Amino acid sequence: MTPLEHLLIFGSVMVAAWFLFTYFWPRLLLSVFKRAILDKGFGDGPIPINTLYTEPQTLFADPLHVPASASKLATTGVNRDTLMTAGWLDLSKGPQVLHVPEMAGRYYSVQFTDPSDNTNFAYVGKRATGTQAGDYLVSGPGWEGQVPGGMPRISSPNNSVLVFGRVLVFGDSDLPAAHALSKQIQLTPLSGWQPGP
């Protein structure tokens, strides 16, 4: 083989390796993140599919002394201004209804991520939808059912969805109120959803 042929083979192998790395690395990370959410949550045990779980007040108040049982989800960084809420959706059995409480002007966000390509495809929150209480239908690809009247629909490109929420905490004295609001961000299967008052 000539040096040029060696260079072409080496270049082809490097391009293929780079493609494989850029394609599979985000998927591998999301798989690890999914396992952390579903198996360990914030250290209090597993978070079931189609359930949102809010970071415990004690973990938020003392992030430097994380329990040994906590997953990487709880230890990925010191967050001193927003409480985290996380969950993993499986929309293959039908849509979920996301409920958010009245936030009275407080910053919050709920982010929806497609794990197949690590892209955020929708947000609910102060900047995107305001801070009033509301319900949002989250449906998977190909779902053609009836959307309840007046309910906005979030169409997911994938049946698996990573949900990550944040609620602003103004200070130590505000932590109980912020935590109570975070825990009211909930999911209900559309089949069991009842309109509120």
TrEMBL record:
Domain DUF1254: 69-189
Pfam families: DUF1254
SUPFAM superfamilies registered for this protein in UniProt: VPA0735-like (SSF160935)
Entry-linked InterPro entries: DUF1254, DUF1254_sf
Domain of life (superkingdom): Bacteria
Keyword Glycoprotein: no
Residues spanning the membrane: 6-25
UniProt keyword Membrane present: yes
Alphabetical keyword list: Membrane, Transmembrane, Transmembrane helix
Protein name: Uncharacterized conserved protein
